[in-house]
Amino acid sequence: MSNWLKMTNAEDGIRVVNGRVQQEHKCNGTSLFSSTPWLCSPHLQTVFLQLFERIPACNYQRQIFKTTDGETIALDWLRNVDVKKTYKEGSDGVPSDDKTPIILVIPGSTSDSNSAYVKHLALTMTKSGWNVVVSNHRGLGGLSITSDCLYNPGWTEDVREIIDHLHTQYAQAPLFAVGTSIGANILVKYLGEEGVNTAIVGAVAICSPWDFLIGDWFIKRKLVQRPYDRALGIGLKNYVELHQSILPRLTDWKSISKINCIRDFDKHVSCVLANYETVDTYYRKVSCSSYVLNVRVPLLCISALDDPVCSRETIPWDECRANKNVVLATTQHGGHLGHIEGMMAKSLWWVRAADEFLCVLNSSSLIYREKIQNTTVLDSPAKSIDQAPYVSIREDGLVTAFSNDPSDEIGNEQLAKDDKAGDGIRVDNGTVQQEPNAATQFDPVCVPTINAVMVPVKNCLNQLSRRSKMSMWALACVAITMTWPILGLLFFKRKRRHTFSSSSAKRWP
């Protein structure tokens, strides 16, 4: 559990245990996920939300935003006051002096503000007192693209400009962000690129792909994953064909018309527009897993271990543990953007968990203090790795942890003294030294001890074994070669004796 989470848990009562976001003192109840019994399969969880779930009605207010490269992006607002009174056409939107916290929603691939899960999220958060703004990707949300560039999982420029615009326009309102699927990858990558320079004070990433190179291999590995690959590939193909007349850099439209998987789309479209040589290079560059360590704001990451689209193998477990700002919550079930709960399947658990998490952050002053203190939080581990070895090899061949921290050196020294109370080995300043045993002081001229004989032998073997990678194999071959004749001779004598006794017994009348 991260240090930031411990601090928040102590004052604000939030904790995440086994995929359970628990909030005490600030809200009633806990966010324990219990999936709908008749949606026990991850595929049912994933498909039900897209095909059969009743979509809630959301009366968005649209704001047109222009990027620096001439692109037009639709920002769809759902204010807290809009769900409490009748919607009025042509209202002025959110006042610039409004202090209501704002949540920026970044949808997934080919999704927009009208997607079912986006409306679930927007309506739930708005009823909880937030102002929600959905940032539709380029060419989505009913608008055509106005530049020769499409969005991709690694394109963070649009999000960066939108966040700067929201922070400038609504300077008194705390700004949070929620990313789903591809939007989660964009959000985490943006937070890693910006570090402490972002206006975001808290974020949630839902079902992030994390590593596209592993994800591409996963989605083609089994027959049950291939329909998702085909559906997403065809959806992306239809998306780019809508803007064929505005994309002059795409010339091989014959190959584009045959796209039926994600990799084909990335080969003929994404790599061409983003100027990448190969698809694998593109996947390595746009993956957010390498940016997790640089995140400097509180970030909750929710993933289902049975996600049929984004494999659990892509989750950067070690990076999430190493960064104290990141809280990783995984559930055994849930599918991709599913987590449908209740007998009537009317609610999404990850929406409720995100609401509780951001509610605690908004009511806590730790988020602002932590953001300032985290400027160099990851510099020390990097320096210690660069300036010191990872391990220390003692004279008896044992491997112990080694650190530049004085306290660690004291601990290692004490541990070595305790372990070697009978061997006369001590560690001073990271070096191994041999000394007579303080407890049993023998004259070295007198009867030699077993340790006095074995330690030089161990040292010789250790030095010999560290000469090269083949030394141990050489020693093993020498040992086998030397002992094989002796074992063969003993085996031959025993067999000969047994044969002689048997023949004698037969001759006996």
Number of helices: 17
Q: Name the CATH class of the domain at 32-88 and 96-211 and 290-365.
A: Alpha Beta
Mean pLDDT score: 74
Low-confidence stretches: 1-30, 86-91, 375-454, 463-472, 500-509
Q: Please count the beta strands (DSSP E, at least 2 residues each).
A: 17
Structural class: alpha/beta
Oligomer: single chain
What is the CATH topology descriptor of the domain at 32-88 and 96-211 and 290-365?
Answer: Rossmann fold
Helix content: 40-55%
Report the biggest beta sheet as strand number plus sense, adding barrel if it closes: 8 strands, mixed
- β content, as a range? 5-15%
Q: In one word, what is the shape?
A: globular
The CATH architecture of the domain at 32-88 and 96-211 and 290-365 can be given as 3-Layer(aba) Sandwich
Strand order of the largest sheet: 4-5-7-6-8-9-10-11
Separation of termini? 84 Å
What is the rounded Rg? 32 Å
CATH H-level name of the domain at 32-88 and 96-211 and 290-365... which superfamily?
A: Alpha/Beta hydrolase fold, catalytic domain
Short description:
Keywords: Membrane, Transmembrane, Transmembrane helix. It comes from Capsicum baccatum. 41% of the residues lie in helices and 15% in strands.
